[in-house]
Amino acid sequence: MACLLLGHFASYPALFATAVAGMPLSIILRREALERVQAQAAPANTTQAWLCERVGLSAAEAASFEIVMTPLAAALVTVILVIHVAAVVWAKATHRARLAQHEAGVVAARRRFGLSVVGLTALVLLAGAVGWAVILTA
Question: Please, which contacts does 133-138 make with residues 24 or more away whose CB atoms are closer than 8 Å?
Fold first, then answer.
């Protein structure tokens, strides 16, 4: 149970990193769509209408927000799923190692989980750094 809880808490920094790193990548990948909606005068769907009414965005800003955030939401879901699956694998490996009284297996399972979370977060941060560099130097 502790593995699952720690895995859940470990996902928060990775999700924050994904959110910050994913924005420039989403902007770069969806540049043409962002340019097309700049003249949009009215919300095109209920999400955009909500953003206009409740948040006070213009129709073009709401459309731009949706264009950037949709792929970012998919990235966030992917990261949280990968980390939680890694936590389940860690918990199962730890359980099996403890049943076999093999403490080295517990340490190895914890190390694999830690490396998977750190590796995924590092990959996200590297991609985000490249994305921000492209946007800030363009």
Answer: 134/24, 134/28, 135/24, 135/27, 135/28
